[in-house]
User: What shape does this take?
Amino acid sequence: MSISESSKVKHQFYPSIEDSYDEGIIISVIIDCFHGLEYIKQSIRSVLDQDYSNVELLLVNNGASEDIAAYLKTVHASNKNTSLITYEVNQFSWDDFEKTVPICWNAGLKHCKGEIVTHLSYDDMFSKNYASKMARLFEENPKCNTASPLPVCINEAGEIITSSDFLPLNNRQRYEEGKKVAIDYIKGSPQKMFCAPGEILAIRKSILLNYFGYGPGFDVFQILKYAIHGDIGFDPKAYVYWRRHALQTNRMGTAKGHINFKNEKKNIQKSNLINIWKNNFSLLEVELLEVFFKNRLKKLPISKARQMVGDKNLYGLLLVFINTAKECPELLIQSIFSAITYALSIILNKLKKG
Assistant: This one.
């Protein structure tokens, strides 16, 4: 779904009550909200409290409850550089739980003023220096078209689980060629140049517009579709605090037995990535991308089955097998075998420790 198509989904746009920007790069942050009021408050506060003045906040009320809707209206009315987009109906479906990306994110992209755009999940937070660090990366290097902070994991209470989880897995300089990082990524990250638990990149608006805005599968496509056009910046002293909790959409989906095989396959086809790579990479590198996608799809039902075993969710495991039989029956036996061997390894490890 392109930006123009997302505009057809009924919504209301309320521009900022007051605009106040200094000279320099404007960074636009999109936050879509539906549930988790206390998390939303923390996420929004982390944007409003930035040590950089040129930050635009685009709030998206994605059919939220009355208390969340009222809070978003209050934030919009009492803060400069803050716009509000509202949907009466929640743009989400368990049959396609990335539906909000092309609809809500692209609505924010359409209305934003910044030349740099990023998305922050309702349950995550930025460090106070995030925007100033990202702005400097773009200012210092005109070839920098994407940039990221360091992910840091936090728990439900907002406490840091570990501050170094992702640092060894983001082994790159302040600037690297985006193509180089993408190639390392599809090769299985032998140089460990990029790793993130979700969407993380700040991207030049012009790049997003050139490729019809945000689309499903953004966690992967942020590197493979957008970062390849120029340099990717990295500042490990700026953080995005990524929260792990039981109500994360991907965890809830997995608990319901979703393997996401059919949607992932559809997203790959709709992304036009193979053709984009044909215009930017060698034939050998395009073949590497095709192998990457093939292996990624193959791992989906297997990883979901193993996760259900680890969570001791037998009903969820059964649902995974049922959905595997429906969406990719050729992988069913392998998924069952992997789940059994994983369960045996857990039992053996317990016996050794006991």
About this structure: The longest strand covers residues 231-243. Residues 283-310 form the longest helix (28 residues).
